[in-house]
Amino acid sequence: QIELALAEANAPHVTYEVDLFNKPEWFASKVNPVGKVPAVTYGGPNVDPDDPSPLSAKIAESNVILEFLADLYPDSGLLPKDPVLRAKVRFFIDATTKHIEGPFFAFIRGSESYDNILKGIEFIQELLEEGRDFAAGDHYTIADACISPHLARLKIVIETDLGRAPAGAFPREVESD
Amino acid sequence: QIELALAEANAPHVTYEVDLFNKPEWFASKVNPVGKVPAVTYGGPNVDPDDPSPLSAKIAESNVILEFLADLYPDSGLLPKDPVLRAKVRFFIDATTKHIEGPFFAFIRGSESYDNILKGIEFIQELLEEGRDFAAGDHYTIADACISPHLARLKIVIETDLGRAPAGAFPREVESD
Asked: Is residue B78 part of a domain?
């Protein structure tokens, strides 16, 4: 999600891949106390990504970071200018989080059936306007950046039957985004 | 949440209370297909609230509406101007939704223990800065508007033992915000 939004905004950045199965100690202590990815550091001195400065801002949670990038790059189109259109983009993101992401992880954990994901997709489908190429409005926004990795991941899960693995077969870290 | 933000922004508005146990037919067909409150109509001709115009924009989901009001009233302070501070406000709202609202409804439904609410409150507590009067930053924002009704409701639930009612004792509508 964040990589897509960064690319769309042509935002200069350094990517650091955190090994979720072997997180470096500094990640929780210096970037995100909760230990989840994605997280971004912003501002402060020019340092290596694996040696974050206490002077940079640390921002976590995908949807919060997406809004942050839209704020930093107001002319990127990541969010439209019109308040009503912005609300449409945010409603789409809210729906993706509640109706796709939530049911997806519940399914992976084995606590909810696959049907809930299908219902979620139907809900999202209803939001899409006929003949439009984007999630909300007429250009790429953070709503597109939000949903596309979910759909890509869902495709992989369907193709590999990942969801049929017994509960507990995966460590909790795979829930990170 | 929305009433608090509207008051903070001095936003002229008409309030219509939807009876959640006896929703008027027009609410789902003309305002929010999902039938949940809160929802706002914006723009369009000047009509009675119980006769919404197809020409007004319809916006639902509390957090989406809060952002919408902050967009409509940029000088209200509902969101700060600085992108990093805006991200702090949004992180607080995200945390409230995930760590207070989620566990609260799970508790009310009887699917999760009260402990999760306490953990959520501890998570939120960690976000509060010493000596500050507001949820995030130095003035009232949508983060304050977001959390205060949750805390007020929690107080009522604790005082009335509402959470000890048997599962299914309340219709699903009480989950609406």
From this structure: no
Distance of CA A121 to the CA centre of its chain: 17
- Are A105 and A162 found together in one domain? yes
Cβ neighbours of B67 in A, within 8 Å: 86-87, 90
Residue where a domain terminates, one of A22, A48, A73:
A73
Please tell me the distance in Å from B93's CA to the nearest CA on chain A. Answer: 9
CA–CA gap between residue A1 and residue A34 (Å, rounded)? 19
The range of the structural domain enclosing residue A58 comes to 2-73
Taking contacts as CB-CB distances below 8 angstroms, the residues of chain A near B33 are 126
ipTM of the complex: 0.90
Whether B60 and B92 share a structural domain: no
Q: pLDDT digit string (tens) for B18-67?
A: 998 999 999 999 999 988 999 999 999 999 999 999 999 999 999 999 99
Question: Which whole number is the average pLDDT over A62-85?
Answer: 98
Question: Is residue B148's pLDDT more than 90?
Answer: yes
Q: What percent of chain B has pLDDT over 70?
A: 91
For residue B18, the domain's CATH number is 3.40.30
Domain check: are B87 and B159 in the same one? yes
Size of interface A-B (CB pairs under 8 A): 62
Q: Domains in chain B: how many in total? A: 2
* Domain shared by B67 and B113, yes or no: no
The answer on pLDDT for B176 being more than 50 is no
| Preferred mutation among B66, B91, B146 to probe A, highest tally of A CBs within 10 A | B91
Distance from CA of B75 to the nearest CA of A (A): 14
> For residue A160, is it within any domain?
yes
CB-CB under 8 Å, B63 with A87: no
Q: How far is B72 from chain A (nearest CA, A)?
A: 7
Q: Output the pTM of the full model.
A: 0.90
User: What CA–CA distance (Å, rounded) separates A67 from B86?
Assistant: 9
pLDDT score for B124: 97
